[in-house]
Please model this.
Amino acid sequence: MKVSYKWLQKYFDEPLPSVEELSDAITFHAFEIDGVEDINGDQVLDVKVLPDRSHDCLSHRGIAKEIAVILDRKLSSDPLQLKPILEPITDTVVISIENPELCNRYIAGVMKGVKVGPSPEWLKERLEAIGQRSINNIVDATNFVMFNSGQPLHAFDASKIKEENGKRSIRVRYAREGEKMIALDQKEYALTETMLVISDHLKDEAIGIAGVKGGVPASITQETTDIIIESANFNGASVRRTSASLKLRTD
Model:
């Protein structure tokens, strides 16, 4: 995993040791460092996070937490200790999960009146330092959250999801036999009944491959004004099988 030294510093009030000292400390106490690269004035560490720690360390917050223990320092901030206010609860989006054993939690937030455009420079710099191409402020914000705290998010264009009686319906289900979806990489993927998808329930159309990739049918564009943000927990083994079967690897 690519980890930005400058990004890590945001978790601490005291200056971190030099990148060389920090690399040695991480290597001898937690994870191997496969290399350090200078990218636009930022030192980027390639941290080899092993599968048994992927649940809590595939993020800058996770690595900062390890550093805090190694160096005996306190984190100046911890996004997972915040208690966000999720009011008001909306009934304009209805969520249903067909396979709770593969998706034990799925929540969606609605944001109206957004303006899609370029991200601020600080956000572009954070993402580009770790090899991520800046796309737009909405997509970049979801990627920032994923690389910062470890929780993947995905944003859908609400207007592209069918509305009925003032409500839109998202269903987590297995793909239908013979079902296909064009993903955000503009490639069409043939899905099977073993693959979990996010669907526009009223259209009965796949709009995302669960835990892997979003789809074109509800993609964000410059014309997007209202979005639905997904935050979910999918079964890791199911995600890996789907990714391997489709030969589709994503962050």
About this structure: The chain has a mean pLDDT of 96. The first helix runs from residue 5 to 9. DSSP finds seven helices and 14 strands in the chain. The CA atoms of residues 110 and 228 lie 5 Å apart.
